[in-house]
Design goal:
single chain, about 450 residues, three-stranded antiparallel beta sheet
């Protein structure tokens, strides 16, 4: 009797959707298989654009449940998706999808998330849904090669000033950013792994920054390296790994954390080798000079320039760009005010991350798009690029105690940023669950 009622409810739902008459007439297994295939395909597109683990899993769950299937499970780790559902007659269908490569395409995350909401609202037949997915895939915007190289220059140029460099350090960091961008493109064409690619790029950065300082382009090679190394620092990856672990996606978080450690080791070896070689060839290179003390306004402006570079690199498009840059200014203002108030660095970064996450969530609700774009841009000034570089430099010089202390401080800052973001997202999710529960009771 329960099974018949369940099937009746299922049929009523299919008739209520805008699907053509032929759709409900499909065999149950065929429809369920197509539904699971579509949900996994859309989630796979999101994962390829760099979406968070919870967003990929939630996409599968929401789409399948929108068509009346309550028993659905999704398990996602970087580069892999596993999903299953149970049909009305108790049959278990499973789909596994492996992702061979991914990139950060914020425009893709926004468009595929919008498509997910549309599918859940309209519940079209599977043929129409697949057509919409193909159209969305074709509409995702990616910048051309010129904009890519412009983004790498802006990152180095902006953060060269952000960390206290003068105009020559800014120019040198921008040139090093261009060199890193070209190296990454070349390594990508050769399908080099993350370790080797990071090693080559960091070696070129360490050598080129010191070579430019030797010929007078920049008074301090360290500032040049710190500005340009922001391109290579796995700050987002580290923050997301901690978020995954704290949120409960342990396997995904540990996977990302291993990637962070691999890249960090490559940066240590590559940068140390490049700097050592350059200083043997150019023994009169100046280093350790006191950076310029800029006002908060100038630091915010420099950080916004660097953030714009990251936004372009991550394919952020449309009218949301100015709002994303505003988020980076807000985060650094909060961090600076907390530091000037006498708070420790990790606490200041914690409050800045909370402010960034709140701003991103507010903008996401105002503009009806994922908070990811605004959050990533707002967190850019909080990436501890300087801490990571000086940890590497202390290791290169054999100052292990100083390296340990700096490394622990840097890890605490990254952890504080992850916790701040997680606190906001967790509270808002709990609020959403409570609101949905109230609506259900009233209905």
């Amino acid at each position: 009797m329960k099974k018949r009622d369940k099937q009746t409810k299922r049929g009523a739902l299919l008739q209520a959707t805008p699907a053509p008459a032929a759709e409900p007439a499909q065999s149950g297994g065929s429809f369920y298989a197509e539904l699971l295939e579509f949900a996994v395909s859309l989630a796979n597109k999101l994962q390829a654009c760099g979406a968070e683990t919870y967003r990929v899993e939630d996409t599968i769950t929401r789409i399948v449940k929108a068509y009346g299937v309550e028993r659905v499970d999704a398990f996602v780790i970087p580069n892999s998706i596993m999903a299953s559902l149970e049909t009305d007659d108790g049959q278990i269908l499973t789909k596994i999808r492996r992702l061979m490569g991914s990139d950060t395409v914020l425009d893709g995350i926004e468009r595929y998330s919008t498509l997910c909401r549309r599918i859940c609202t309209e519940r079209p037949d599977m043929a129409t849904a697949r057509k919409l997915l193909r159209e969305t895939e074709g509409s995702v915007c990616r910048y051309n090669l010129f904009v890519y190289y412009l983004s790498t220059f802006l990152i180095g140029f902006g953060f060269g000033a952000f960390f206290g460099g003068g105009i020559l350090e800014m120019l040198a960091a921008g040139l090093c950013g261009l060199a890193i961008g070209a190296s990454q493109k070349f390594m990508g064409r050769l399908h080099a792994n993350a370790f080797f690619s990071s090693f080559v790029c960091s070696f070129i950065l360490g050598f080129l920054a010191n070579a430019l300082a030797a010929i007078g382009v920049g008074r301090d090679a360290n500032i040049t390296v710190i500005g340009a190394i922001m391109i290579l620092v796995p700050g987002f990856l580290f923050t997301n790994s901690l978020r995954d672990v704290i949120y409960g996606d342990t396997m995904s978080g540990l996977n990302r954390l291993v990637q962070v450690l691999i890249i960090a080791v490559a940066l240590v070896i590559g940068t140390s080798a490049g700097v050592t070689l350059a200083r043997q060839l150019f023994p009169n290179i100046a280093s350790g000079l006191v950076p310029n003390e800029y006002s908060i306004a100038l630091q915010c402006l420099a950080g916004a320039v660097g953030t714009l570079g990251f936004g372009l690199m991550f394919n952020l498009h449309g009218r949301g760009i100015p709002f994303a840059l505003l988020g980076s200014i807000i985060s650094w203002v909060v961090c600076s005010l907390c530091t000037h108030a006498g708070m420790s660095e990790p606490i200041g970064y914690l409050f800045a991350a909370v402010a960034s996450a709140l701003y991103a969530e507010i903008m996401a609700r105002i503009r009806k798009c994922p908070a990811t774009s605004y959050l990533m841009c707002a967190l850019v000034p909080l990436i501890p690029g300087g801490g990571i570089y000086f940890t590497v430099d202390f290791i290169r010089r054999g100052m292990l105690t100083e390296a340990y202390n700096k490394g622990m401080t840097t890890a605490m800052i990254a952890g504080a940023v992850a916790i701040g973001v997680l606190l906001v997202s967790t509270v808002l999710r709990m609020w959403g669950v409570w609101q949905r529960g109230r609506k259900t009771k009233k209905a």
